[in-house]
Design a protein that fits this description.
The chain is of the alpha+beta class and 320 residues long. The protein contains nine helices and nine strands. The N and C termini lie far apart (86 Å).
Amino acid sequence: MTATESENSDVDEFEDITEISPPSPEHSDIDLERTSVESEVFDFNVEGEGDAEDVGINTDTSDQLGEDDSAVEVIEPADVHKVQYCIVSSTKLMTLLYRVHGECCKRPGCDQPLHFKETYVGTCLVVNWKCNAGHFGGRWASQPTCAGLRAGNLLLASSIVKSGNSYTKIGFLFKIMNMTYISKMLYNQYQSLYIAPAVEEYWKDMRDDSWNERDGKDLILSSDGRNDSPGHCAQYLTYSFADMETKTILDVKIVDVREVEGRKSTKMERVGFERGLDDLLTSKMNLQEIVTDGHLEISALMSKFMYILCIISIAFCFLQ
């Protein structure tokens, strides 16, 4: 269906579609020439919504909800990625709720007007409604829940990590689009409690499978390190070992500059090389060669290792 066809079909089905009003004067007066993208991305304040539910509303509504009242959908954690999302105006959602539930209380003998309360839980819109007499009408959420978490919030936090983006840059995008965003504290909680453990568990399973497939085989490995920033002021280094034949990553070590002698970033690569090689030597794989770059610390380490081998060989010859 083309864009023209979709617009025509919408007009035929709904006659009261409102037009988008022009930008307000407060937005049109912004001097875009004085706006720096870098300063906005790295220095602006991301205003996100937390995961705390609105208090004062009775959430135990099983005995109060009627047959036509909406409820919050609950799904299994494994089905979070199967839910399809789209961009929807909150105004249109509220208009739809008004049409579905009406303007007056549905309790027998009560014609009091309904009051709808909007609450944002991260990127999720939660709506509660009740009448002036205190009768609870219902509760509806724009996202399903899984294990007590909003599925959309969890999926957004995991997508930021897995796509290689940052919380601040995606927050800048949401700010431009005038969309609600998850708070920094909520993002960090999701990352430490759910996302990072899941990624680490998956990586360990994949690494174990790769090692088991190469038990007893002769291998030639390539290895190299990568700092989190250029120059001599790096904080972290990732050192990787790969199978030269299949290009499969067999091990990855993360080194903090505070763990090395003198806290010198130039020594992190040697530490990562040693840690990874120690683990690989404990496996059943036969390491024939290891190819690295010309890093001075690794060259000094190998020279020291070759010197020790020469001493051992000379001593063994004298013993014979």
